[in-house]
Amino acid sequence: ETGVTQSPTHLIKTRGQQVTLRCSSQSGHNTVSWYQQALGQGPQFIFQYYREEENGRGNFPPRFSGLQFPNYSSELNVNALELDDSALYLCASSLHDGFEAFFGQGTRLTVV
Amino acid sequence: AQSVTQLDSQVPVFEEAPVELRCNYSSSVSVYLFWYVQYPNQGLQLLLKYLSGSTLVKGINGFEAEFNKSQTSFHLRKPSVHISDTAEYFCAVVDSGAGSYQLTFGKGTKLSVIP
Questions:
Q1: Which of A36, B20, B33, B113 sits 20 to 30 Å CA-CA off A76?
Q2: Angle at A94 between CA A44 and CA A99, to 5 degrees
């Protein structure tokens, strides 16, 4: 059974740039959720993708967008990066009607 | 929307001593609760979950938690901690809206095990 994998593990970007983070879901899981974890905080829900469409969104601006592909993998895109976007970004996969989410190792994004 | 409060941001404890990490949630009709552990520079690993049934839930690494509906609590316990338990622990509740299920997390409790 393949777990959730994220790439890259670390990334440094300049304010105003755009970034794409990638996630491969666990085998058999059809739903992917993204979370942002700022330093010293708990993860916050960004959005969820199911059947290649956004299926729920947290309190994040439109410059946070995503994609899901037919193989259930997903991308998180952030435009016009701000310093406050510096955080650990976590991807979690699950079954659509399942409550149990399995997390990847995360991508540490630093915006300078 | 659901909310989760972890009452202690840091908990130091001596090795082989018992520990309790406290978590309270906002009340709702259906409650599904989780504890996750995060080791430094890593993602989240599921420790245990409460979906229904017995209020005492056993998880990995010797941890257990008790669901208390009247006190809206889901405290995590371990009778004897090890150095390797040093990590950050997050309590989470399932929040549903617009057809999706997402997790709402507490701010975390850093457990430091002292040799």
A1: B33
A2: 75
Q: Which residue of A has its CA nearest to B41?
A: A105
A66 touches chain B (CB under 8 A): no
In tens digits, chain B (115 residues) has pLDDT values of 788 999 999 999 999 999 999 999 986 767 899 999 999 888 999 999 998 889 999 999 999 999 999 999 999 999 999 999 999 999 999 887 656 788 999 999 999 999 9
Q: Do A42 and B46 touch (CB under 8 A)?
A: no
Query: Which residues, 6 or more positions from A109, have their beta carbon under 8 angstroms from its beta carbon?
Result: A11, A13, A19, A21, A78, A85, A86, A87, A88, A89
Residue A56 has its nearest CB partner, among B41, B98, B105, at: B98
The alpha-carbon gap from A83 to the nearest alpha carbon of chain B, in Å, equals: 20
Cα(B42)–Cα(A103) distance, integer angstroms? 10
Beta bridge partners of B111: B11, B87
How far apart CA B112 and CA B8 sit, in angstroms, is 12
Phi, psi for B62 (deg, rounded to 5): 80, 5
Rounded Cα distance between B41 and B88, Å, is 11
